[in-house]
Amino acid sequence: MNRKPELIMAWIANSISIIYLLVMGLSYFSLKSGNASQREELAKQLSQNGGKVSLDMLQTTMGALAIILLISTLYGIFATICIKGRRKLSIILFVIAIIVSLMALNLIAIVLWVIVMIMLISKKESKETTHKDDEYIYH
Predict the structure, then answer these.
(1) Which residues form the DUF4064 domain (predicted)?
(2) Residue 136: which pLDDT band, with cuts at 50, 70 and 90?
(3) What Rg, from alpha-carbon coordinates, does the chain have?
C-alpha cells in the first residue's frame, strides 16, 4: 500500500524534533561553558523574576530534557523506518515516542506523529488475492 503521505509527515515531525534537539543541546552547552559574566547576568535575571531557580538547576533540567528529547526522536525515527513493513510495530513506536515527547514539550512533532498514527490505523493493508484461473500461479 502507498504510505507516502505518512512517510512525509513522519519525516517532517522527525526533522522538527531533531532541530528542537539541536537547539536544546546548544543552549545546554552554552549554559555549561559560558563565561563568568554571562553566568552572573543570567543568575541575576533569574533572581529578579522572583524565581527560586538556580543556574545549576536550570542546567540540569535542560540536560534531562535534551536526553528525553533524544529518546523520543529515536523512537520516532525507528517508527518511521517501520511504516512500510510493520505497520503495527510502527504504531506502537509512535505511541511511545508521543508519550516520551510529552515530557519535553515537543508539541509540533507530537501533533504530526498523532496524525500519522491515525492515518496508519485508518488505512488497512490491502491483501492480494490470486484466482486459480490466473495464468501466473502455475509458473
Answers:
(1) 2-103
(2) low
(3) 22
Query: What is each CA distance from 15 to 47, 86, 97, 106, in whole angstroms?
Result: 35, 22, 14, 12
Count CB-CB contacts under 10 A for residue 24.
Answer: 20
pTM of the model: 0.77
* 5: helix, strand or coil: helix
Question: For residues 59 and 73, what is the distance between their CA atoms, to the nearest angstrom?
Answer: 21
Give the closest residue to 21 by CA, choosing from 61, 78, 60, 68.
68
- pLDDT tens, residue by residue, 15-72: 999 999 999 989 888 888 877 777 777 777 777 766 677 778 888 888 899 999 999 9
Q: Is residue 130 exposed (0-12), middle (13-18) or buried (19+ Cβ within 10 Å)?
A: exposed
| Interatomic CA distance for residues 119 and 94, integer angstroms | 12
